[in-house]
Amino acid sequence: MTGLSVSERQAALETILTPARIIPVLTIDRIEDGVPLARALVAGGVKVLEVTFRTEAAAAAAKAMIAEVPEAVVGIGTVLNADDLRRAQALGARFAVSPGATPELLDAAAASDLPLLPGVATASELMQARARGFDLLKFFPAEQSGGIPMLRALAGPFPHTRFCPTGGVSAANAATWLAEPNVIAVGGSWLCPASDVKAGNWEVITGRCIDAMKSLRRK
């Protein structure tokens, strides 16, 4: 990625997210769960993964997933500041995701080689991101911030901005979100509930992924 502009890195991120359709948001409590979880998701046709920086195990689990499951495209989520961004890049992540977008984080991302999906919930936040070249954004928390009506309202003044809604997106409404013209993918944790991860129900997770991807193809 070295030497690419923000817009070029955003375009590269779009090529990752668009075919993925669903980005599972993974909160991993045990390092040893990372690799089998990644393999279960990939086996179900879900290859672009977001490992959140919410647990002590996250970094080591993500590093193992990147090393041992090369088919997976691993990004790091819950990136809150420039240090988190640097940690994500050092792990070998392909992209980073933030729940919000402070000026400091946006500036750090503009100077970084790692593509960032910044989070926004309002027009003002969107404008701050666009001012630094970010036109591909995470809409978070999606349902709680006005849902699809809000996204449609933002499409008026910002017709070229594309979104990955996360927060309240589920198996029941993922296809509805994805039908919106300014949505390129959705994020959520429903594909791999914590109970299944804790129990090691990898085949169940794979089956849920297969069903989800088949369902989206029928829409």
UniProtKB/TrEMBL annotation:
It catalyses: 2-dehydro-3-deoxy-6-phospho-D-gluconate = D-glyceraldehyde 3-phosphate + pyruvate. Keywords: Carbohydrate metabolism, Lyase, Schiff base. One of its GO terms (molecular function) is 2-dehydro-3-deoxy-phosphogluconate aldolase activity. Pathway: Carbohydrate acid metabolism; 2-dehydro-3-deoxy-D-gluconate degradation; D-glyceraldehyde 3-phosphate and pyruvate from 2-dehydro-3-deoxy-D-gluconate: step 2/2. Gene3D superfamilies: Aldolase class I. InterPro entries: Aldlse_KDPG_KHG, Aldolase_TIM, KDPG/KHG_AS_1, KDPG/KHG_AS_2. NCBIfam families: eda, PRK05718.1. PANTHER family: 2-DEHYDRO-3-DEOXY-6-PHOSPHOGALACTONATE ALDOLASE-RELATED, 2-KETO-3-DEOXY-6-PHOSPHOGLUCONATE ALDOLASE. Belongs to the KHG/KDPG aldolase family. Its EC number is 4.1.2.14. This is 2-dehydro-3-deoxy-phosphogluconate aldolase. The keyword Lyase applies. It holds the Pfam family Aldolase. The keyword Protein biosynthesis does not apply. It is an enzyme of class 4 (lyase). Transmembrane segments: none annotated. The gene is eda. It comes from Candidatus Afipia apatlaquensis. Homotrimer. It comes from the Bacteria.
